[in-house]
């Protein structure tokens, strides 16, 4: 009777091992360079124990406590040997074969072909900046998008930052139109020419005098303040018109159409007064300017956005029709006691991170954005606004984030 029982036990052990060998076990797919974990559910096989998984080290993953985890190196199909035993026969190890598919990192499928440094309108594929802005700090980065890098094309975005006479500072950002053959030069000329226009002590003194009238409510009537406001907008208008003339002249001299230089333009001209920070703004196109208050309880969009109603066709500084009566609505005057961040960006950042214009004045969306900058993202890339000695490089690394379908140039300016 004893031998018969042993035979029955052996048969049961054999059967359970064979059932485990034959069960269709599918490991979920992994992705190269992304954290992966898979736990073996062994409830149906209480007597089967997995001892080891051979060949797993080749993938960059490890096995412990019935769980595969880690970050796989490269995309491939890996043949894995599951080494297992039966709890009533621990000296006999069997093997079950499974496959692990590691998908390619989408970033690796994009080529990064350098642009032509010998081109007459050559510009670097990425640039970064950090410095002072009034009594605050500023960091700005501009990075060529994957779609341009894949074809060896130029970065069409651009920016310029300048400290101006009398304590004023200016940041301008432009996004050259993808359909315009000389967009990269259009965006460069736009930011350089608007900043240089305001690099005038005489003009800034006039703007400053009018600004003090506007915000010194105790000493001036509404009529006088209204006139001062008009004077400021007239000065800003002259700067914007100057940009148009520079682009128009460049097109004519080089036998381009001005459409070949199509570019958006936003700028913020700022100074700290005794009554607060005054931020003078302008925008044409789909790039936002936002100011966030100290405790993140309020965020304001400081410019008109050309999105939605034009069915994807944005507006450009190179379009004569923007210089009509409506242009006044494109200028903004904002005075705040203080702020945590002043942010300007192109749609390469705005589209993947905010998606719709309505979210640009939603505090939760901005909290999520700064959490992302703080390292709460798939790449674990962090921008440190406190230990900021190399903040521009940190921000440049952060802008390499992956967002499916969003591969445009990315420019981001943060005053903090």
UniProtKB/TrEMBL annotation:
Domain (PPM-type phosphatase) ranges: 144-373
Organism domain of life: Bacteria
Pfam families on file: PP2C_2
Alphabetical list of SUPFAM superfamilies matching this protein: PP2C-like (SSF81606)
InterPro entries assigned to the protein according to its UniProt record, in alphabetical order: PPM-type-like_dom_sf, PPM-type_phosphatase-like_dom
Entry-linked Gene3D superfamilies: PPM-type phosphatase domain
Protein name, entry field: Protein phosphatase 2C domain-containing protein
Organism this protein belongs to: Chryseobacterium antibioticum
